[in-house]
Amino acid sequence: MRLTNFDMDALRTFVTGVELGSFARAAQRLGRSTSATSAQLRKLESQADALLLRRAGRGLALTDSGELMLAYARRLLALNDEACAALHSGRLGGEVRLGLQEDFGEILLPEVLGRFARLHPRVRIEVRVARNAELLGALAAGGLDLALVWGGDPAAPGRELLGRVPMCWIGDAEVLARWREQAGEPLPLLCFEAPCLFRSEPCAALDRAGLPWRVAFSSANLGGLWAAARARLGITVRTALCLPAGVEVLPSGSSGLPPLPTLELALHRAEAQPSEPVQLLQSLIREALEESLPR
């Protein structure tokens, strides 16, 4: 059998389009025209001698061959990018000061930051894990180069919107069932100390629905909230991203809990034209989160 050398640009277009849920968005991300993107997808299907995508309503879905190609394409691109970074790492120096929410520490700290440190050993990384207001304040004061936050100023020049993530009621189903049985009893809430979006938004939603509530547990950190939720002291509100074991997303509407709003997750840079280490870390964070975020 004659072996085929797959085109790396075509593989990157294919993976980016699937991960973004749109090949038009992939064209924008990669700086190509939509016609060039379509040509690369046709080229990849020709090289694979298989149909990788099929029509599904108004969009596209992966075929069985497409699913298989996607898995290999991700591995090929990761190895290609690591090789490029490793060859370049000896020349790359400087520092990156990153701020992030506790929600993402478990994913980003070991995976993304560990990988970045291995690829760029001469780049010094400083990490601050804090709440939204503190991170945005540090960014404005020049204490951070990059921050992963909920929302922030949409007009900020260094802001990149990663996605929109629904808030969710989170806890144990038994707590919800017990509250529903005790009609008229206040809903026990597990909250961060004020001010906090994950405190003000659910309280406002309960008030609009005419449902009484009480703060059963208040904490300055996320670990405390998760411990209280596992202990069945009440119900909290976060997103469905990076949930620990022992808690689950609870339904709204039919359960008696009101619907909650959606939050924007964004990366904010202190500089409109950041240094190369900041750009590289931003790219790794984006790639790590894209698969988890809603399309």
UniProtKB/TrEMBL annotation:
Gene3D superfamilies assigned: Periplasmic binding protein-like II, Winged helix-like DNA-binding domain superfamily/Winged helix DNA-binding domain
Record flagged with keyword Transit peptide: no
NAD found in the keyword field: no
Signal peptide positions (record): none
Classification via InterPro entries: LTTR, LysR_HTH_N, LysR_subst-bd, WH-like_DNA-bd_sf, WH_DNA-bd_sf
Entry keyword set: DNA-binding, Transcription, Transcription regulation
HTH lysR-type domain boundaries: 6-63
PROSITE patterns reported for this sequence: HTH_LYSR
Family listed: Belongs to the LysR transcriptional regulatory family.
The protein's name: LysR family transcriptional regulator
Organism per entry: Bowmanella yangjiangensis
